[in-house]
Amino acid sequence: MTKLKVLLAEDDVTMVSLLTTLLKMEGFSVVALQADDDVPAAVRREKPDVLLLDVHLLHQSGFDILDTIRSTKETARACVVMSSGSNVRDECMNHGANGFLLKPYMPDELITILKQTIKSA
To answer: Per the confidence metrics, is the pTM higher than 0.70?
Structure first.
């Protein structure tokens, strides 16, 4: 059975480390991006089952990234779960996110929303 692939776009290196460890323990394959990586290009290249996208990246806006992903035919159907320390759920969903996690969140919340998002795709 092929592992489900999660693409991480998160600029907090501690969070990336924790998420990578957790997701691998849960049986996911994980690709973590650098803070200023081209996320839409990584989605095209990696073809993840789901992208976990921070709303506020170092020099990028998660909203702008999601708008680009949704406007490109090759990536428009990508599953995207956004996360933020601010409750911007409605804005994320209006930009086309498949799900939203308010930080800090519990590991089981993360796993549940990732699996639900992938299943509903």
So the answer is: yes
